[in-house]
Task: structure prediction
Amino acid sequence: MKRLLAALQFLTILPVSIKSEIKETDFGASLLYFPVVGLLIGILLSLSALALSSLPALVRSAIILIVSIFITGGIHLDGFADTCDGFYGNKPREKILEIMRDSHIGAMGVIGIVSLLILKFSVMASLSGGSLWKILIVMPVFSRWAQALACRMAGYARPEGKGRYFVEYSRDKDIIIGGIFTLALLVLLISLKGLVLFCISFIPVALFFCYLKKRLGGMTGDTIGAVNEVAEACVFLFGLILSGIHA
Result:
């Protein structure tokens, strides 16, 4: 339970009280519960879509997008923006890390966030209600598992940082179990198209992993957040294509 609460505390703004001491190894072990937290987020988003079903698609989509940012506190968007700033141009590794550590957002960070939100908004507005609630559930599950996988696929690029213990103490079995859970949920909700969605969404996410690892030699808290956003965008876009249903 402590590790589930640690995952909740890290991934959402939900009020979580952890009474016992959290060890460094607990952070790595909490990766097992990242898809579970994603499922909770997905259910909240899906319920929001249901509650807003009487509103025009554009208004509904805007509100759902705001709710999704509020639930997470925008932490992953912040990491995505910092990653856009750091990786723009052919900078050396040290310069990239320096830029990402800067608390100020640059032009490329703004452009990246605006482009990402426009994509998410347009996809949500284009999905029918029957497809939307399913995508809203599987999207955060897949993206949180992708974060856990990112922690396991590469070392930590800094000597210190908020994401260090998630990376250093990650375990293969937790990632595998999380992946099976994620895949099973996609197949349960979207049948064979869920399997296809998992596979085609994984390809660009894996390529993004490789790019980050090549440029930095590992992950940081910002790039792990960026992985989440890229994974969400992939599930949204490919989910729309596979649904074949437009509002």
Summary: The chain has one domain: 2-9+23-241. Residues 2-9+23-241 form one domain. The first helix runs from residue 2 to 11.
